[in-house]
């Protein structure tokens, strides 16, 4: 019943797409933003973009944690890895993200100790196993990931592991959504809300979309029927009803979210201003360790602060992340920039809009 | 990156457990989902359960989607 196959059932997907077509017929073009990179990936993987009617378009948003990691943040991680005795542990997605002078992968090739881990607990294990090493975990990710990292910090505290710390580059999704809308560069008719962020935050966190922006929001899972049923809900809202937050991922998301996870996140982290690739500095859009957990704050321990740094020359990731241009409008797309040799982070991560559009183009 | 896959909890030992996905068992922390019980489906992200799937809701969603889909195709 929880098997993914039930949510991929082709006749159901076809029926939902038919419903979208009927609701959208004769309407002015509609444009919805999928906030989350996981949705961007799913839409490409299942070829959903080409199955939607011509007047229903989906644009990617800034919800790819790897893509929005600023160049200066990558540089800070590389600077840390260059310190003698420091081991940097990171999720694999971060390895190839370009900073101003190469990526973590390049740093490792030239001798820095950079390790790919699946969980911050693996980084904690490395710290336990090598008491002489300073192990720094790169805290990248949204509200889905921050509680997990908070839990690891609390475990480090409880078990007295002092050679473990976190460079927090965590970012918060609602402020980024607001930043995209406040910039006023794109006209949108609704938002597909992030599923796993909302599993932690709760669907209520998106209440500001109908309230402040008159936009409907449908929180969605990552299977084809999840995404298409969210589009059905958004077109229905445009077609008449009041904009609201619809939870189209009821099996995983509640209105209030995961209170235990949120409580842990708040115990360890406090909001901070943060730079996003593509959005610039957004007030209170990031998380830093609270003073009580300063001992596990790699930024303080090694006196390293991400500074503003330029984006790769010619890369238009910023505009892609704000939904202002489609990836193929970037002159480098598919020419100088491809997944095999990415220029910008949107081509690095499989959740990046450029990589997703590239794989769609390959299939066609 | 917010990837989280539904997996069944097959064993629970205080704040840890074992989940099984496609025949492979994996250790998972239950610190963020203390309410999880053996037999529950969990969303697992970076080694931690982050949500317990609501089977009743799952069933309701599936039948609702079936209804919408067949109603649209039948008319
Ligand atoms: S195609 Fe490459 S260079 Fe262009 S915006 Fe995307 S990542 Fe940047």
What does this entry look like structurally?
The complex is a heterodimer of chains A (364) and B (75). Chain A starts with 9 loop residues before the first helix and ends with a helix. Chain A is α/β, with parallel strands linked by helices and 364 residues long. In chain A, strand 5, helix 8 (146-158) and strand 6 form a beta-alpha-beta unit. Chain A has 17 helices and eleven strands. The longest helix of chain A has 15 residues, at 10-24. The radius of gyration of chain A is 20 Å and the shape is globular. In chain A, the strands form three sheets. In chain A, strands 2-1-7-8-9 form a five-stranded parallel sheet. By secondary structure, chain B is α+β, with helices and mostly antiparallel strands. In chain B, strands 3-2-1-4-5 form a five-stranded antiparallel sheet, with no helix packed on it. The chains are: A alpha/beta (364), B alpha+beta (75). The interface between A and B is large, with 57 and 36 residues. Iron/sulfur cluster binds next to helix 15 and helix 16 of chain A. Iron/sulfur cluster is lined by residues 315-317, 320, 327, 330, 332-333, 337, 343-344, 346-347, 354 of chain A.
């Amino acid at each position: 019943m929880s098997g993914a196959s039930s949510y991929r059932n082709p006749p159901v997907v076809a029926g939902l797409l038919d419903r979208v077509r009927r609701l959208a017929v004769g309407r002015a073009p509609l444009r919805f933003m999928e906030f989350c990179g996981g949705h961007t990936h799913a839409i490409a993987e299942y070829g959903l973009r080409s199955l939607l009617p011509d007047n229903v378009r989906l644009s990617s948003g800034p919800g790819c944690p790897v893509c929005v990691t600023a160049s200066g943040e990558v540089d800070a991680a590389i600077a840390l890895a260059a310190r003698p005795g420091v081991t940097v542990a990171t999720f694999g997605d971060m390895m190839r993200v370009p900073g101003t002078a190469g990526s973590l992968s390049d740093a490792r090739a030239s001798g820095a100790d950079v390790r790919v881990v699946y969980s911050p607990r693996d980084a904690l294990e490395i710290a336990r196993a090598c008491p002489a090493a300073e192990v720094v975990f790169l805290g990248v990710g949204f509200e889905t990931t921050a509680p997990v990292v908070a839990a690891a910090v609390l475990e480090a505290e409880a078990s007295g592991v002092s050679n473990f710390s976190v460079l927090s580059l965590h970012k918060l999704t609602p402020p980024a959504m607001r930043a995209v809308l406040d910039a006023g560069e794109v006209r949108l008719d609704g938002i597909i809300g992030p599923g796993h962020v909302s599993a932690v935050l709760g669907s209520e966190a998106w209440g500001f979309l109908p309230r402040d922006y008159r936009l409907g929001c449908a929180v969605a899972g990552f299977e084809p029927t999840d995404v298409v049923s969210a589009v059905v809900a958004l077109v229905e809202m445009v077609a008449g009803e009041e904009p609201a937050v619809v939870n189209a991922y009821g099996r995983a998301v509640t209105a209030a979210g995961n209170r235990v996870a949120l409580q842990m996140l708040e115990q360890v982290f406090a909001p901070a201003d943060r730079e996003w690739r593509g959005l610039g500095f957004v007030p209170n859009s990031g998380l830093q360790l609270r003073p009580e957990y300063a001992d596990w704050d790699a930024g303080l321990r090694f006196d390293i602060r991400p500074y503003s740094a330029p984006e790769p020359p010619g890369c238009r990731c910023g505009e892609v992340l704000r939904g202002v241009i489609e990836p193929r409008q970037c002159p480098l797309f598919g020419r100088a920039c491809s997944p095999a040799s990415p220029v910008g982070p949107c081509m690095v991560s499989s959740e990046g809009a450029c990589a997703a559009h590239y794989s769609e183009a390959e299939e066609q | 990156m917010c990837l989280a896959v539904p997996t069944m909890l097959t064993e629970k030992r205080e704040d840890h457990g074992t989940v099984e996905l496609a025949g492979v068992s994996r250790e998972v922390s239950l610190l963020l989902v203390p309410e999880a019980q053996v037999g529950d489906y969990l969303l697992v992200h970076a080694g931690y359960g982050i949500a317990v799937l609501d089977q009743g809701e799952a069933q309701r969603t599936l039948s609702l989607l079936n209804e919408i889909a067949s109603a649209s195709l039948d008319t």
